[in-house]
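Field guide to reading this record: the first block holds the primary sequence, the second block holds the structure written as discrete tokens, and the final block holds curator observations. Each block starts with its own label. This record concerns Arabidopsis retrotransposon Orf1 C-terminal domain-containing protein, catalogued under organism Arabidopsis arenosa.

BLOCK 1 — SEQUENCE
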Amino acid sequence: MAALKPVKVLPTQIACQFTLSRLGILDDVATVFETLGLGRLWRVEHRVYPKLVREFIATCRLTYNNPTKPTAGEGTLTFFLNKVHYSKTLFEICDMYGFTKGESVEFPKLSYAVADDFWGTIASGSYKSREAKITHIRNPVVRYVAKVIGSTLYFKPVIAAVPLSELAMLFYGVKHLLPRYADLPAPDVNIVVILCDVLVKMKNTAPTSAGRSILAGTALTPLFLGCKLDLSTVKYEAGQASMDVDNLVNTGYLKTNSLVYTFLGRENFSYFCSLPNTHITSLVSLSNLEFIPDEQYLVPNPFGGVPRRRMFVDAPPADEHVVADDEIYEDYDDLVPREHAQPYLLLPEDQARYRLSPPPAGDDISRQMEWMIASTRKNNSMMHKMWRAIAKIRPCVCTRGGGADDADRENRSKTTEDRHAERLVPAAGQSGASTSQRSPEHTPDTRLGRSRRQPGEQQSSSESPTRHR
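BLOCK 2 — STRUCTURE
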């Protein structure tokens, strides 16, 4: 309990039903969560009781009658609230949240082939757990569901990647749209087991996490109410956190407050479409699940930019639940000019590939949009090639020091260094024996081709006076 005192208790970020209704995806999101048996957890709106949350996290424990073959029907969760011991079966907790009373304690693990195939259906690229970014998911319903699962069930502070356990939940939530996997039986999973397992581990992970916070504040209030606690005398915080429009704009789900959805196409270009549009977002077919809308449903970039291709670099190993945001780089098709190529040839002699075709005639918006995108890509490709060629231009001989005067330049540089060293050598009358005994070949004047006169000597006609600063 003492280790959790400095840990902040924050509200759980839940789904915003008003925003989902505005986007036209509320019914589909609710259907997926109903299929998964998530109950009311994804949309609970309650106060946060920090003291009770810390006490629960510090004392909760999950046990099974047969630990070697655990089932939800034999599981028990014990904890303390207000210094009173409680023991609840997992089925009793299911009633508090509205979970489906399944027996299995986890979703069946997907094989690599199934996971890669499913990821290729809903997102771009092959599936790798730490590289499977949530921003790669195209369909707005599936993408929103993935965000809610990461926030309300696993309490992630940063929802960036889709690990295999969460990908399995997405798979079984939309399996009815996948003809290839229609023969797979629906899993009898109890979500409460996953929830309790995450809460039990939180006592060790929260004090050492980067944010030092517990994000299960709102999610635990139904449990407190189910234990019939008198919460009227308990200090609470009324703050709420939801995935509203502002949150979706900040996380890159929406481009602007005008409900313009942004997603990454199969060819790694960013596209935009206006929501609501249930004709392309509703989960009623495999084509809608893949979400590759026709150009008639696309809109230009609201910020006036152009479609750009993304290339995601490999991130260093990190905790599975706290993954840094991916870095976006421009990916150019044209290669960098070779070192021996002439630097002034910024473009090839045959520049036909960069010539723009005339704009289409008529008022067909889809053809005009297609022409605009193709023209923008040509211009970008040309400008990127020119810029990268300019960046590879090597400096000429006179500036990079590769000519015949290198030896003379080096001698002048050494002369300057010797003059600086000469100022540091004390006069002969002040330097004592150590200076007078210096070997002539090691004195600065000897290296400069001059001889030092001893006191009382006459300057010879062959010597020129040396001026000291």
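BLOCK 3 — OBSERVATIONS
Residues 269 and 308 are 5 Å apart (CA to CA).
Confidence is low (pLDDT under 50) at residues 312-344, 427-442, 444-451, 460-469.
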